[in-house]
Each structure stands twice: as C-alpha cells, then as structure tokens.
Amino acid sequence: MLKQLVNECVIKLAIRPDGPILVKSGIETVSGPDMAFVRTWRDGEPQVYLPGSSLKGVLRSHAERITRTFNETKACDPFSKKGPTMSCGHRFERRKKREELNNSLVYAQSCPICRLFGSTWYGGRLATADAYAEGRPPGVEQRDGVGIDRFTGGAARGAKFELEVVTSGTFVTILHIRNFELWQLGLVGFLLQDLKDGLIRVGMGKSRGLGKVRGEVRSIRVDFLGPQAPAPGNGTLTLKGIGSLVPSEMADAYGMVHPDEVTVTFSGEWQGGEGHIRHTARFTDEDFPWAALGRRWVDYIQVYERPLEMALERFTGGA
Ligand SMILES: [Zn+2]
To answer: Is 21:167 a contact under the CB 8 Å cutoff?
Structure first.
C-alpha cells in the first residue's frame, strides 16, 4: 500500500469482561491449569492481557458475518481454497503464476474485509494494539469441568480439566485505521456498536458461555496529512477518505471510492491549519458521525461486485 500516510483514525477502546473470559496462552505450561490465560511481563510482573492479534481476529470474523448478511460471497473465507468464497490470499497465490501483481491491483481485487483487515498478500488498514489492564490487573480464577475441548473450543464429553478465567477489570486498546476509505470507518462503527451491545465474544469457549465482553469507545481522533487536508469552518468539517486525498488516477488504480467525502457538524477540538503537517480533529463517541459513515458502508457493500475472476471460478469450480 501507499508508503505515504494521508489520513488516520485512532480510536481508544475499553473492553470489560461481562462474565468469565479466557484468552488462551499459546505456550504450554508444565504445571498449573490446563488452559492458562495469556500473560505478558509488565511493571515487573506477569499480567493478563488481551493480545491485539486476538482482538483483530474476532473483529474480522464479525465483519465477515456482517458482510455476508448482504450476500454470502461478498467476503472471502480466509480458510477456503476453492469456490466463490476462496480466500483472497489463495487467489493471488494462483494469479501470480500467470501475471504480475502489484500493490494497487492486489488492493483493488481484494474483498472488502481483506481491504480493511489484510491478507497474506496485503497488510491491511486496521491495526489493533494489545489491550492492557487499566490500573491494577485483575486476578484470575480457576474453573474446572466446564468441558471445553482444549483444541477446538467446542464441547467435549467427559473431559475434565482446569482453566483460568478473568471476570473483571478494564482492558484498554487503540485501533489505528490508516489511509482509510470512509466506508471502512463505517464498517468499524458497526463493529464497535456490536461490541458495545455485547454481541461480540472473545477468546475460548464461546459456545459454552465464555467470552462475553462490553466495549466502550473512550475517544476518537482523525488526522489528515498533506495538501488536500480539510479544515473546519462554520461549525462543519469535511471528512475525507483516501480517495479524496490522492490523485484520481491513483484512486482509480486502487479501486478506491472517489471523491470520498462527507461534511458533518463539528464542534470538537481542532489542531492544524497553516504551518502544520498533521491536522487533527478530536471527537467523543457521541459526536462522531457514525450514522453518516455507516451509510457509506451500506451504500458501498450493496453495489460492491466480486472481481471477474472470482465470478469465473464459480463456473470452473476453482480449477
Ligand atoms: Zn478477502
């Protein structure tokens, strides 16, 4: 993707367990519970935390579900190697044998979910930092006999073993969405709404009642860089997606929406103008124009079409 940064949305997000959660450590322990909560060394002690990669994974899965409500094939299946939902990564792996692939083509021909979250061929726009406990890290509790299969997270009859859960505390993370299109912020808005409503679960044992959390957006910052950066006036601000911040030939090559702008009422804090490289608008969750951006996402996904090659694979069975 572009090396140059033209816009960025930074969201501070707090996540609270709403019951027992277990985000498993990848490292096997010799003694102790069969399934230990993942920890990291912080402030001189091992502390439980929510790894950014886990959070990104659950957000991605939920985004796939939302996208498939519009049409089964609008989002690729990251694990599929054939058919109309073949993963974008696998499709590019095959295409590279017969053609030159560059960044713009890979972005333009990726499904909306890979455009935001990335694939084996493309880093993605959204980054999720590790979520650390605010203040004193919560303690863990031991549970046993829940019967969660240690490998699949599904139910396992007769299996009895110990697991470690966290039931309290507040974990804080930062989401970065760099060089975004407006529809991508709209999709993130729907994900955050579902997180606030407790509809997204994290970690192991979701089918057994584990993993309930509640999200809370603490603050939102949007940065613009470069000569096309907007400025507020008359109580409004025009938010610009990357398609409105780069030359139109480039936006076309990447298959970006352009122009990509929405004018919203703005009474938040602004830093920028003459002599600034970075122009920053600060919002509260309540003030942020989630509804207008959500509209962009819905409009985008309704008209979005799979690239031609994917449509052809439906008829050739992915051969
Ligand atoms: Zn994809």
So the answer is: yes
